[in-house]
Write a structure and sequence with these properties.
Elements: E1 12-16, E2 20-25, E3 31-37, E4 39-44, E5 47-51, E6 56-59, E7 65-70, E8 77-83, H1 86-96, E9 108-110, H2 115-125, H3 135-151, H4 164-173, H5 182-188, H6 193-202, H7 207-225, H8 230-236, H9 242-253, H10 257-262
Antiparallel strand pairs: 1-8, 2-7, 3-6, 3-8, 4-5, 4-7, 6-9
Length: 284
């Protein structure tokens, strides 16, 4: 087993039936990914990064991202993603020494990733491979993977002190269905409700907004990576009413949950391996 600094990563197989653009998606852990079918477009500094089938890339943590996933008929969009703790990247860059780390986290394309690196990515994404290894070996292999991506141009930018919003998102992600209140959050952060409200306002957000957004991000992850019925997805993120959940989802993302899963036509339901991403990591 690994030490307590980070959990063993679990890959996510993301599948999408209909074309959709998602705004302000926030990952709580950096992601390495490969587009396996279709096209992914990520906005970075108001410039689009385009990832065609077979391309590899890096998505940063705690940065609101705009991403468009485009299926290529007759196949659905599919991406394989591997969340890796930030500390792994930082340790890898320190060991390299010569790497230039951007001043802030940014999305990046890993151009011309060598076949040895692609094979390592595939190995780390195979269910059970990392879990069967001693912790130090797991960390060494993840560091090697981070270095391969860095040498191919995908370098994770420097981290900044986590915002209160980031910490609150991580707390809610541990159990999105829980009946979270401002009082729960204030108690967890050892501050009064008024102080928490004031600090969130200084970050131009609020508790209810973060709660709803975290739940919708989690719901999107479940729709992308599982075959759970929509009613169950709704329950998993704290909605007893599927219709209320669907309306809130469409309000947040501009498309219905069923459009994300099945597309604009009556496609058959997407088959996906049910792999839950750990609560402290994303896509979600």
């Amino acid at each position: 087993m690994l030490d307590d600094v980070f959990p063993i990563p679990a890959r996510a197989l993301i599948r999408q039936g209909g074309r959709a653009c998602f705004y302000r998606l926030v990952n709580t852990s950096p992601l390495l990914f490969q587009v396996q079918s279709g096209t992914k477009i990520v906005m970075a500094d108001d410039k689009p990064l385009r990832f065609e089938t077979g391309a590899y890339g890096l998505l940063p943590d705690h940065q609101p991202l705009t991403m468009e996933n485009i299926p290529k008929a007759p196949q659905k969009y599919q991406t394989l993603a591997l969340p890796i703790p930030r500390q792994v990247f930082e340790d890898a860059y320190t060991r390299m020494g010569s790497i230039v780390v951007p001043s802030r986290p940014v999305s990046a394309n890993a151009s011309s990733l060598p076949k040895e690196a692609a094979a390592l990515f595939d190995y780390c994404c195979q269910p059970g491979n990392l879990a069967s290894l001693p912790g130090p070996i797991v960390k060494a292999r993840l560091m090697e993977l981070a270095i391969w991506f860095a040498l191919s141009g995908a370098v994770l930018g420097q981290s900044h002190s986590p915002r209160l919003e980031d910490r609150l998102r991580q707390m809610i992600e541990t159990d999105p269905a829980f009946d979270w209140t401002l009082a729960h959050a204030a108690g967890a952060f050892n501050m009064s409700e008024a102080t928490l409200r004031r600090k969130l306002a200084a970050e131009k957000t609020g508790f209810s907004e973060i709660l709803s957004d975290t739940r919708m991000n989690r719901a999107l992850g479940l729709i992308h990576t599982t075959t759970l019925p929509m009613a169950q997805v709704a329950l998993e993120v704290g909605y007893d009413s599927p219709s209320q959940f669907s309306a809130r989802f469409k309000e947040r993302f501009g498309v219905s949950p069923r459009h994300v899963r099945s597309g604009p036509e009556n496609f058959e339901r997407i088959g996906a391996e049910v792999e839950q991403i750990r609560a402290d990591i994303l896509a979600r």
